[in-house]
Amino acid sequence: MADILLQREALLCRLGEGLLPHDFAGLYVVSEEVDRVLRALPGISGPPEERAEALARQLEPGLAAARQQFSEYLTGASVFAGIVRHAHLGELPAQTLALLAAVECSPHRMRLVAYFQDNVQLPRLTLASLGRLLGGGARALAPDAPLRRAELAESGAEGPWATRMCWPATRVLWALTGDDSADPALPAGARRLAASAGDGVPARPRLLLVAGADAASRLAAARKALPHKPFLVSPLPADDAEWAAVVREAGLGGRAVFLELAAPLTRAAADRIDRAAHLDWVLGSAGELALDTLPDRPWTELRLESAAADEADWQTTFGTRPEPAYLLSRDQIRLVGAAAGGDPARLEAGVRRLAGGHLDGLAVRIRPHRRPEDLVLPDDRTAQLDELVARFRLRRIVYDDWGFAPVAAPGVVALFAGPSGTGKTLAAEIVAGRLGLDLYKVDLSSVVSKYIGETEKNLERIFGAASAGDLVLFFDEADALFGKRSEVADAHDRYANIEVAYLLQRLEAYQGLVVLATNLQRNIDDAFLRRISVAVDFEPPDERRRRLIWERAFPAGAPLGERLDFDFLARQFRVTGGVIRNAALGAAFLAAEDGAAVTMNRVALALKREFQKLGRLRTEAEFGPYFPLVNGDDDAAPA
Predict the structure, then answer these.
(1) Which residues contact 221 (CB under 8 A, 6 or more apart)?
(2) Rounded to an integer, what distance in angstroms lies between the CA atom of residue 276 and that of residue 480?
(3) End-to-end CA distance of the chain
(4) Of 244, 252, 274, 384, which residue is the least packed, with the fewest Cβ within 10 Å?
(5) What would the DSSP string read from start to end of 231-255?
(6) pLDDT digits (tens, 9 = 90+) for 88-104
(7) Dihedral (C-alpha) 226, 231, 236, 240: value to the nearest 10 degrees?
(8) Residue 8 burial (C-beta neighbours within 10 Å; 0-12, 13-18, 19+)
């Protein structure tokens, strides 16, 4: 059809005008051209009408047959027919697109177009020429026409309207040649998904809102709502070029567009969605979108509550049943599966990588290596730690399978209270190790800021990054952040209370494990205490436990030159486990410096240094026979 139309126009031009374009057509106007234009104007003697009509009648049967063949072609399964159907194009827009594509793909046709447009600088069809060729074809490229709404064709934006050239989008031409590469102008991160299987094909919503849970859950719900429909998943386009690419790419493949929103829609974005009415749109968001921001078209909404990966997600990713130890969301299991290569044996390593890098500068990562036997606690305290591990590991069973409602969120908050050195940090590390998670110790100096609002921003970064990975957040000296709110005496008190209120709100929404460590439990705000799942009191060890700690403080490979008197050390020195471990380490360095074994004298000297750090007096009642050594010349060598 395109070739017949171009042939007719060229012959009519040649017959009617009687002149061929000269070598520099369009660069200057000669008198012969003026005469030719004057003859073509209404009311003036123009080209022989009977000759033109005779030629048109001669070509009309072939053109009519070509139009009929083209109409039948549009009902087929070709790429072009699919584009026409997906874009909901009528007969005239379809003919226009076919004609533009035929010219664009052929240099010979471009020479023909330049001939009958009488300008070598116009190798593409102009709006005026489209009007002559298709009898209104220019209207198919009007700003609000289907071709333009679908972003399938373009026209020049400068110069006189009649001479503005028109062309199909490059992505359309690649598709027609059999190449289905994604449009390079798509927003960064956009991806195409094949259609998913489903039971039946329900009535498709033109606009679907999916709110709640996580991004992967929202996408899964959208694909379930639109079975057998391929998807284009994209962040919100940032400019006109990205919007055009999204609309065009979705239309070419008959895809629904899933936009993951991090903020409410702008009016301009809503208008772009309204403009592309031929597409199915899905808007995913963590919370409900305000009504006054939505596009002006009917919509359906899905509200999701749980973001947890289900058994199907685990089977797809790892080929296993869900692991109760990891309450992963669909977003997280996708990331973990990629990191682990789908190997269940590498699941733990993949989970550890979830938050890697996001918390740098705000928290210190501790990869657990201490064992439960390294922590010496009363049996009741050890049982509490076991309960903490079980509470975190079995959340899915209690909340999901049994239907218990969590107090706030399914996360777990533990409070470790007790003097320094009683094992709070060690206990947090051991709990993280038993769960197969990394421990992130929050650096309060990098979190708390004197500037209004900065502390909240830092806390949001911490909880936001922690939400991206299963891990244990450890707040040491937590009363600095979780302290009691005070009466408002000045602006500083008011903003300090705002920080505490914000932290409580964020803590209640967090779904992971948080451990708060404090030396003084009475300094913790009561609102936080009500949110505590497990509270463990750490006390200085008694004599029996001090002896166990002394024994375990020296590894099997340590060179012990004589039998260390653990009974004496446990009985005489009422110190915490932290002091004992520091003293054992100090004694080991004294022995290494002298190239000798660890002896009681070196342990006594190491204890002396610990007492000096604590500002604690050394007494003969405690050190007994070692008192002269620790109370004499600091440089005296041990016996």
Answers:
(1) 210, 213, 302, 304
(2) 53
(3) 109
(4) 274
(5) EEEEEPP-SHHHHHHHHHHHHHHTP
(6) 898 899 999 999 999 99
(7) -120
(8) buried
Examine residue 353 and state whether it is found in any structural domain, yes or no.
Answer: no
From residue 10, alpha-carbon distances to 115, 132, 235, 627 in Å are 7, 12, 47, 116
Which residues, 6+ apart, have CB-to-CB distance to 112 below 8 Å?
6, 7, 10
- Residue 269 resides in a domain: yes
Same domain, 138 and 284: no
Which runs of E-coded beta strand occur in 236-330?
256-260, 281-285, 300-303
Q: 607: which residues sit within 8 A by CB, 6+ positions away?
A: 573, 575, 579, 583, 623, 630
> Does 202 have pLDDT greater than 60?
no
333 in the same domain as 319 = yes
Q: Which two tokens stand for residue 592?
A: 């290494």
pLDDT grade for 49, boundaries at 50, 70 and 90? low
Q: Which domain holds residue 317?
A: 311-345
Question: Does 126 lie in the same domain as 200?
Answer: no
Can you read off the two tokens belonging to residue 277? 């009415």
The one-letter amino acid at 516: L
Residues 199 and 272 both lie in one domain:
yes
pTM value?
0.62
Q: What number of other Cβ atoms are within 10 A of residue 117's Cβ?
A: 24
74 and 56, same domain (yes or no): yes
- Cα 482 from Cα 564, distance rounded (Å): 43
pLDDT digits (tens, 9 = 90+) for 550-585: 999 998 888 887 778 999 999 999 999 999 999 999
What is the rounded distance in angstroms from the CA atom of residue 255 to the CA atom of residue 247?
A: 9
Q: Which residue has the tokens 């005296």?
A: 636
- Return the CATH number at 591: 1.10.8.60
**Are 518 and 371 in the same domain?**
yes
Q: Which two tokens stand for residue 297?
A: 């078209």
Q: Is residue 577 assigned to a domain?
A: yes
What kind and span of H or E run contains 512?
Answer: none
Helix, strand and coil percent figures for the chain, each rounded to 5: 50, 10, 40
Share of the chain above pLDDT 70, in %: 78
Residue 138 vs residues 129, 135, 151, 485: alpha-carbon distances, Å: 8, 8, 16, 70
Token pair 């460590």 is found at: 517
Tokens 């911490």, residue located:
462
User: Is residue 637 domain-resident?
Assistant: no
Report how far residue 1's alpha carbon sits from residue 605's, in angstroms, rounded to the nearest whole number. Answer: 101
126 CB burial (10 A radius; 0-12, 13-18, 19+) = buried
> How many distinct structural domains can be found in the chain?
5
Please count the residues of the chain. 639
CA 228 to CA 564: how far, in whole Å?
75
Q: What token pair was written down for 77?
A: 């399964």
Number of other CB atoms surrounding residue 313 within 10 Å: 21
Closest to 369 measured CA to CA, from 344, 382, 381, 352 = 352
CA torsion angle 430 434 440 441 (round to 10): -20
- The amino acid that residue 154 corresponds to is E
**Structure-derived torsion over alpha carbons of residues 385, 389, 395, 397, reported in degrees to the nearest 10:** -110
Q: Tell me, yes or no, whether 338 and 417 share the same domain.
A: no
